[in-house]
Write a structure and sequence with these properties.
heterodimer; A: 143 residues; alpha+beta; Tetrahydropterin Synthase, Chain A; five-stranded mixed sheet; 5 strands; 31% strand; B: 139 residues; 4 helices; 29% helix
């Protein structure tokens, strides 16, 4: 039985959001989302952790070279989210509540096309007390 | 099944250099990790063992024994060492997080008799780490 090796990398971004949906009344929004529904939103320092797998290239000792992985994540995620309002500035959250569950799914979708290694899962820490993980639609066994 | 994790920290130096590459290629692929005299990290190793708690002791394994295994197999071999030159198991390999984690897995796996080695996670820094699992095992 062989070994499975994954490379894990952490990134950070700061963004604001508001948890609110037009499908619910004002009272229901307040009841469901509490202070996260406050009208002008609020922000977090998010920590993104991604894991990729693949063969370790014997010439480099690497699954993925950070020289390629970091700019990809920077372009696909960090530039899009960092110092932005998730509700106002990210198209995916026009009609989707930007909970960290949905943020995980959006980030996974943005990163799954990384060409040099296989994206296994993403983990997003919203605060030091809350974190969320997603490994794709059929990714239950990877969590 | 219960998972139990023990953490240790060690400090070591390394450099990335492939003698089959030209100097320019080494620089392009490895960047400042190719600087000729090396550099160092404080590594954090998390070793996770899976098993059923023994009904008599309540333990998956004796942590004291795991601590001794980690001291002998990892600390004495790697702590305050230059990984390229002083760790035989890494000879001929680029001492990346991936390769060091695999070497550590291979050193620990046969030593752990109570429970079964489940995961080796090696942090090179707070933002970069490698995980080793048995192929086919859940994470």
């Amino acid at each position: 039985m062989g070994l499975k090796i994954e490379l894990g990398r952490r990134y950070r971004f700061a963004a604001s959001h508001r948890l609110y949906t037009d499908r619910l009344s004002e009272e229901e929004n307040a009841r469901v989302f509490g202070k996260c529904a406050n009208p002008y939103g609020h922000g977090h320092n998010y920590v993104l952790e991604i894991s990729v797998s693949g063969d370790v290239d014997p010439a480099t000792g690497m699954i993925a070279n950070l020289v390629e992985l970091d700019p990809f994540v920077e372009r696909e995620v960090i530039e899009v989210f960092d110092h932005h309002s998730l509700n106002e500035d990210v198209a995916a959250f026009r009609d989707v509540v930007p909970t960290t569950e949905n943020l995980c799914i959006e980030i996974y979708e943005r990163l799954k096309s990384f060409p040099k290694a296989k994206l296994e899962r993403v983990r997003v820490q919203e605060t030091t007390n809350n974190s969320f993980e997603y490994a794709g639609e059929n990714g239950r066994e990877k969590l | 099944m219960v998972l139990i994790t023990r953490k240790i920290e060690f400090s070591a130096s390394h450099l990335y250099h492939n003698p089959a590459f030209s100097p320019e290629e080494n620089r392009r692929v490895f960047g400042k990790c190719n600087n000729p005299h090396g550099h160092g990290h404080n590594y954090t190793l998390e070793v996770t063992v899976a098993g059923e708690p023994d009904p008599a002791t309540g333990m998956v394994l004796d942590l004291k024994e795991l601590k001794e295994i980690l001291e002998r197999e990892v600390m004495q071999r790697m702590d305050h060492r230059f990984l390229n030159y002083e760790v035989a198991e890494l000879k001929g390999q680029i001492p990346t997080c991936e390769n060091i984690a695999r070497v550590i897995w291979d050193l620990l796996d046969p030593q752990i008799k109570q429970g079964r080695l489940h995961r080796v996670r090696l942090y090179e820094s707070a933002d970069l780490f490698a995980d080793c699992y048995r192929n086919g095992a859940g994470c």
